[in-house]
Amino acid sequence: MQLIPAIDLLKGDVVRLHRGDFSECTIYEMSAARLARTYSAAGAKWMHVVDLAASRDGDSANLDPLFQLLEDAPQQVQTGGGVRSGKDIEKRFSHGAARVVVGTLCVNETTRFIRWLDTYGADRLVAALDVHVDTDGIPWPRTHGWTEGSKRHLWDLLDELTTHKLQHLLCTDISKDGAMVGPNLALYRELLERYPTLEIQASGGVAGLRDLEQLKETGVAAAITGKALLEGCFTVQEALEVLA
Predict the structure, then answer these.
(1) Considering 51, 88, 130, 173, which one is annotated as catalytic?
(2) Which of 40, 48, 68, 155 is most buried per CB count within 10 Å?
(3) HSE-up of 161 (CA within 13 Å, CB side)?
């Protein structure tokens, strides 16, 4: 299992939101480029970067800090936030992104995303699905910064996407994101049982090394963690030693 450190950018600052809420934003006094170099030097071969301004503000957002980070980062980077068109994807690729992460459009314009899988290649795109698990244990995607629900549950959506060769899935239980209360292990076990060919990236809830060990046991391809690293719960080196 890979460890993928995460950086959230907001107007160039390294930040973390609590459960996606912009009113609960923690700003970290560190350079994103320096943080990327630190993670790379410790052995992390990938990094996950979300531009929150692009996600919130769309075309009016200034993407220069994101593009500079993509160009400066020594490791491979997958990046998302505000991806709404093929032009958005191509811009990120042109500045050095190895993979582009697409969220809301996977749910609301599924056919369009499927065309992108054909156009850009399934290995270069990640479907990012943030889900709310209901009282019956059924995960439902949430979009637009978790403010809107979907009429299709996760299993129905993935049945269609996997038929069209989806390879990378980033799945987040939104109740866990930024809360450091442990990941939803049952969700990832069921995902792998239903879709064994998917390369699943687990996100949300990681607070310690034991969480990473448990995620590895589920069989997911990668764990994305941001806040636990920023808060010093463990280091990249410590995590990689555990995962080895």
Answers:
(1) 130
(2) 48
(3) 32
Give this prediction's pTM: 0.94
Of 178, 142, 205, 204, the C-alpha closest to 26 is 178
Cα–Cα–Cα angle for 11, 90, 27, nearest 5°? 15
Amino acid at 187: L
Per residue of the chain (244 residues), what is the pLDDT tens digit? 999 999 999 988 998 876 667 777 888 988 999 999 999 999 999 999 999 988 887 777 889 999 999 999 999 999 999 999 999 999 999 999 999 999 999 999 999 999 999 999 999 999 999 999 999 999 999 987 666 778 899 999 999 999 999 999 999 998 876 656 789 999 999 999 999 999 999 999 999 999 999 999 999 999 999 999 999 999 999 999 999 9
Residue 136 annotated to the active site: no
Let me know if 118 is exposed, middle or buried by CB neighbors in 10 A (0-12, 13-18, 19+): exposed
Asked if 36 and 74 count as a contact pair (C-beta separation under 8 A), the reply is yes
**What residues pair up with 27 in beta bridges, in sequence order?**
15
177 is catalytic: no
CB–CB of 150/171 below 8 Å? no
